[in-house]
Structure formats: C-alpha cells, structure tokens
Amino acid sequence: MFKVYGDYQSGNCYKVKLMLHLLGAEYEWQAVDILKGETETPEFLAMNPNGKVPVLQLEDGTFLWESNAILNYLADGSEFLPGEPRLRTQVLQWQFFEQYSHEPYVAVARFIEFYLGMPADRLEEYEVCQRRGLKALRVMEKQLQATPYLVGEHYSIADIALYAYTHVAHEGGFDLTPFPGIQAWLTRVASHPRHVPMRG
Fold this sequence. Notes:
This protein is of the alpha+beta class. It has seven helices and four strands. The protein folds into two domains: 74 residues, Glutaredoxin (3-Layer(aba) Sandwich), CATH 3.40.30.10; 106 residues, Glutathione S-transferase Yfyf (Class Pi), Chain A, domain 2 (Up-down Bundle). The two termini are 20 Å apart.
C-alpha cells in the first residue's frame, strides 16, 4: 500500500490524492502541517531533502517527491498517460507550464490570501501573482476553447496537474467568470466517476 505524506489543503498534495482515487489504488494518508514546520524535521528531510509535501512512500519503503513526478510514476501504463511520444510530451509541456507559469502565481496568491490572511508585507507580491496568474489562465483558456482536455480528447495527468490549483483559484482572488473554457473543463474533470474533492 502507498503512503502519502501531505496537507489536504495543498493543491500539490491533492494531485496525488486525486490520481490515487482515479486509479482505485489503496493508500494511507499521513497529515503534515506545513505551517508548523513539520516538513523541516530531520525525519521529514530524510524522506525529502527539499522539505516539501507531497511525499509518496512506495511499498518497498523508498520515497518519491515532486508532485508532477509522482503523477508520472503513478500514471505509467494507465489511461491517464499517453504512450504515443508526441502526446506524452504534450502532457509534459503542460506539467512544466504548471510548475513555471501557473503554480508560482495562482498557488502563491492562494497561499498569501487563504493560508496567511493577506499580510501587508506580501501585498505587492500578491498583485504580481494576480497579473501573472491571469496570463497563465489565458493560456489555458485558449487551449480549452479548442479541445475538451489539455491534451486533446482524453483526460490525462496534464489535467490533474492544472486542475489542482485552478479549481480553488478563487481562494487566491482569481475570478474565473471570463474563462468559460476553463469553467467547462473544471466541470468535466469533476464529473469523472472516481473523482474525489480536495477536502473530503
């Protein structure tokens, strides 16, 4: 059985939780409180020297970290990761986009507002996140106006990677009303019979 070390409120941890449910895989969840410094203990750093959640413990006792890397491991050989090289590379394109153009702004804005309660010393950073996060959402919208999922016709880990923080973007001050393609996609992803919400 897999063991996940994570925070239920974290989008990166939610990616792993959602993937496991979509696969019907059994797992144990070990809650980690990032605000209490639980990712900085010697025990946690022995699992992930980068001191971040999520961490996936495999049945042989080894550990994997970085949410998108974990998604690739779990999805290997499944319907959620195409075998054809071009499509598989397009999945990776969206995962890299998520880490460099989406997560640093949409997720960080949410962290500042939802986790920290909008402290004054981070308002300027928050405004930068708003501008750059909206740019990332516009990129997604353009694709989702053309195809039902980020990589064509089929739900993949590209969608899981970007659904995680996009579906709670409002908690970071983002209004998704101007993005009908994204809104329809969010509904489509959530309609999967094995879908599970972030909290619950």
